[in-house]
Amino acid sequence: MATSHFSPRTWGAVLSIIFLSLLVVPFAAAQSEESSTAASSTAPSSDAGPTSDKQSKVALVMDASFSMADPESEGGPSKMQVAKDASNQLVDKLPDSALVGAVAYGSKESNAPDNKERGCQDISVLSPVGRIDKAGLKDSFNALEPKGYTPIGNSLKKAAEQLKAAGGEGENSIVLVSDGIDTCAPPPVCDVAKELAADGVGLTVHTIGFQVDEKAQSELDCVAKATGGQSLAAANAAELAQNMEFLTLRSVNMYEARGTPFEFADDPDSAKYLGEGTYHTKVLPRMGKNEAEDRPFYTKLSVPEGYNAYVTVFAIPEQNADGKVTSDIFSTVEAENPAPNCEDYATTVQPSPRTTSGGRYTPPYSASVLVQNEKQPEDEENRCIKMDDWDIVTTLYFADTLSSDQVNQDVELDVEVNVQYVKAGAFAGDEKKPYASRELPGGTQIEEGAPVAGGATFDSAAAVTPEETYNDAIVDGEYRFYKFDVPYGKRPVVTVQGRKTVAEHQSYGLQWDFYNPTRGSVLAGEDIYVGSEEEVNRSAGDSAVQWANRTEYIDGPLTLPGTYYLVFAKSVNGNKHDRTAGIDQGYSFKVELDGEPMDGPEFTPNFEPGAEPSDTPINLASASEDLEKAAETTTTEDAPKEGDNAEQQSADVAQAGEDSAGGSNLKGMLIGAGVVLLIAVGAAGGFLLARRK
C-alpha cells in the first residue's frame, strides 16, 4: 500500500479543492446542458412535434342545421351522420401536432319561425384552436344533433375569433361545410367574408357545399374567392370525406418559412449582416431576369478564418385568390467582394437559376453559394483580406416568358435564408478526388411497404430508413418531406413508383428532389408520369458525398454529410387542377445508399433562428470557442509557479483569458474555476498542481 508524503495542511488544501469542485462542476455542467439545449437544432416529428408561432392553424365549421337531418341518399344515413363520419376520419389523419379547432352551428336551437333571433346566435365552440385533442374533438362531433338555422356569417366570425385568440404568426384557415344558404342574412355572408379578409389576420376560408343547389354553391364560391380560398362541391359521402381531408390537411400541412425576421436591402451599403442560422422575410419578385439583375436583393456575410460558409435561399410562393398559382419563380444567389483576390473564394453551388413552380406543385428549389476561408495562401499578396465584407446577392423573378398581366404581382414570396458554417480543420485545401459518378441501373417495380406520413416542412420531416420501402399519398398543393442520414462516401439513390391514379382518365406528374444538410437542392427536380400504368423512376446524385466536391460545378451540393431530405409534390397542369383537387395520389419509394465510407470534416448544421441582423459582422460562436481554447492553452503555460506571487499571476492570467475569449461561456467559467484551484493548491507543490490540472 502506498504511503502519503503530504502534510495535513496539504491535505486540507486538497479537501478544499474537492469541496470547490463539488460546487463548481455541477454548476458548469448545468450551464453546459442549458447552452447545448439552446444551441441544438432538433427536428420535430411529423406526428408529435412541438408547435411554433409560425405553424398553420385551422378552424372547422360544421353544419348542424335542421336540413342536415335529411338522408344523404335514399334509405341511407342522415347527412349529419355522414358529416360526423367524415369528420372523425379526418381527425384520425391529422398529425398530433396540428393546431385545429372546431365550431358548429344549428345544434342547440330549433328552426321554429319564432326562434330565429336565438337560432341565428346558435353557434357552439366544440374545441378552441390549439394542439388537437383527437378524442375530445370526435366526441364533440358525435354529439351534434341537427336542429336549427344556418348562420354561416356569424359562424365564420366566431371561427375567426378562435383563430385570432390562438395567436401566432402562422397561416389561419377556416374549412366550412354547409348544405345550404345562410338563413340568417343580412348581412350577406360574402360581405362578412370580405370584412374578415380585410381584417389583416391572414385568413383564408375554404368551403364545401354538401349536396347544395346552384344558389347555395354560388354563395360558397363567393366566400372562398373573397378570402383567397378554394370552393369545392360534394355530391355524396365519399366526396365530402375526400374534400374535407384535402382542404384541411392542405391547410395544416402548408410549408411555413421560419427564422429571425429580416429585410433584404436594395443596395450593398444598406445591407445588414446575417449570422449563423435561419432567417425569414417576404418579397415581391421582379418581372423577368433583366430587372432582377438590375435590382437584386442584398445581405452581408462575414466568414472567420478556418471556416467555409454556405448561404442557401429558399423561396416559397404564396397562392393567389384562385389557389392555382402556376407562374414559375427563378432564384439565384452569388457572393461578391471587391477586395483583391476575393473572387476566387466564392463558388455558386448550383450554377443555373433554380425554378420553383408558383402553384406548389413542384418541390421548392433552393439556390446556394459557398464562400471559402478554410485556408489562405501564406503569400499575403494572394490573400483575400476582406473576409468580413461579403455581399450576398440574391435575385428572385418571374420567368421572362410571362407578361405583367399573366402574373399576380401583389403575391409575395416567403423566403428563408439559411447560413451555415463548416470548419475544415485538417481537411483544408484537400486535393480534389476523381469524378465519382456511378452508373444508375433502371428502376424495377417495388412492392408496397410500410405506411409513413411525410411532414410538411424540413423541421417536421418523417424519418425513413435506407433500404426500406414506404407508402404515402399526396394531394394538390401539398409537400411531403422525409429525412435520412448520408455519411461521407455514400450516394443517395431513390426509387419511386407511382400508383395508378384514382381519377379516371386523368394523369399528372409526381415530382421530387433531394436536399442536402444545408437544405440546398441536389437533383433539380425528378418526376414520373402517373396515369393508368404504375411507372417507376430511379434517380440519384452524380457523385458520392465527399469533401472534394465543394467547388465542383455539378457535384457541389453533394459535399457535406448528415441529414438529407426527400421531398415530393404532385405536379398538375392548370387545366387539370379542378379535376384532381382533393384526390389522394398514392406512391411508394425506397432510399438506398451506395459507395464506400470516406473521411471529411465534421458538420453540424444550426437551423435555429439567427442573431438579429446587424450593421457589423456577427461573430461565429464556434470561432470564438477556438479563441477560447487558445486562451486556455496560454493559461496553462502561464500558470503561477510555487513561490511566485500566485494571486497576482492568477489574476493576470484570468484577465488575459477573459480578454481573448470575451468572458463568454462554459470554457471561461472552467478557466476561472481552474484559477481557484491553482490558488488553493499553490502550497502543495508543482507535482500536485499538475495532477489537479
UniProtKB/TrEMBL annotation:
<dbReference type="InterPro" id="IPR036465">
    <property type="entry name" value="vWFA_dom_sf"/>
</dbReference>
<feature type="region of interest" description="Disordered">
    <location>
        <begin position="35"/>
        <end position="56"/>
    </location>
</feature>
<keyword id="KW-0732">Signal</keyword>
<dbReference type="Pfam" id="PF13519">
    <property type="entry name" value="VWA_2"/>
</dbReference>
<keyword id="KW-0472">Membrane</keyword>
<keyword id="KW-0812">Transmembrane</keyword>
<feature type="domain" description="VWFA">
    <location>
        <begin position="57"/>
        <end position="247"/>
    </location>
</feature>
<feature type="compositionally biased region" description="Low complexity">
    <location>
        <begin position="35"/>
        <end position="48"/>
    </location>
</feature>
<feature type="transmembrane region" description="Helical">
    <location>
        <begin position="669"/>
        <end position="690"/>
    </location>
</feature>
<feature type="region of interest" description="Disordered">
    <location>
        <begin position="591"/>
        <end position="661"/>
    </location>
</feature>
<keyword id="KW-1133">Transmembrane helix</keyword>
<protein>
    <submittedName>
        <fullName>VWA domain-containing protein</fullName>
    </submittedName>
</protein>
<feature type="signal peptide">
    <location>
        <begin position="1"/>
        <end position="30"/>
    </location>
</feature>
<dbReference type="InterPro" id="IPR002035">
    <property type="entry name" value="VWF_A"/>
</dbReference>
